Amino acid sequence: MNDIAALLKTFADVHGMSGYEDDVAALLRQELEPLTDEVTIDTMGNVIGIRKGQGPTVMVAAHMDEIGAMVSHIDDDGYLKMVPVGGWSDQTILGQRVIIHTRDGKTLPGVVGSRPPHVMDADERKKLIKIKDMFVDCGATGVANAAELGVEVGSPITIDRDLCRLGNDFVTGKALDNRAGVVMMIWALRLLKRKKVRATIQAVGTVQEEVGLKGARTSAYGLTPDIAIATDVTIPGDNPGVSRSESPVAAGKGPSITIIDAAGRGVISPRPVIKWLRESAEKASIPYQLQVGNGGSTDATAISITKSGIPCSVVCVPTRYIHSPVEVLSLRDLEQGGALIAAAIESAHKYF
Ligand SMILES: [Zn+2]
Question: I need a surface site. Which of 31, 53, 193, 250 has the fewest CB within 10 A?
Answer without folding.
Answer: 193
